[in-house]
Structure formats: C-alpha cells, structure tokens
Amino acid sequence: MAENQRLICAADELEESGKGVRFEVPWAGQATPAFVIRFRGRVYGYLNRCGHIPVELDFQPGEFFDDSRLYLVCATHGALYAPESGACLGGRCERRGLLPLEVIERDGGIYIRE
Hints:
This protein is mostly beta strands. It has strands at residues 5-10, 21-27, 30-39, 42-47, 72-73, 80-81, 88-90, 100-101, 103-106, 109-113. The protein has a single domain (5-113), classed as 3-layer Sandwich (Rieske Iron-sulfur Protein), CATH 2.102.10.
C-alpha cells in the first residue's frame, strides 16, 4: 500500500445505495467532514458539504441518499447530486457540485488517497 493512502472502512460496510461512512480529511488547513458511498457497484468519496452553502448533506449520520436511493441529497435544502460524479442535478446547488475525493477499493478495504 502506498504511504499516502489511509484506510477509511471495510468494503462490506458500504451497501449498494445505502448508508455512507463519514470521516474527516485535511482540507484548506483544517479537518473537514467527508464521506464514502457505494453506487452501482463502485465506491465514491466527497467532501461532506453542499455546493450551495457549506453545510453537511446527511440528515442522520451517513444518510446521504434520497428516498429513491438514486441521488445524493442535501437535507438542509434539497439540492440533488449524481452519486457517480457529484454533479448538481437540481435544487439550490446552482450547478456547483460536490468536491470529489480519490478513493480506492482493494483487499476488502476502502482507502482514501491523501
């Protein structure tokens, strides 16, 4: 494993379109909330901050998907994001998407590249 990769969780902790795993990353000189989710068989990671205003997305810890389980949603004002890209799909995000993180799934674990 490369030195600049950190284990976030076991791969089996992420269910398809289910609860995400929260963690922190260094960003702009401070610890910043982030998350990983599984969607259509792949793992994606993002900073946990809405494109509209920097509030965390999840309404309950790790709950990032809307009721349809097809989109990530900001619990504060309903902005919708594509799970596979973080792109703004509608709502108050006004074309400002989520900031992606480089995540790797291997050997039964989910790692982030720092």
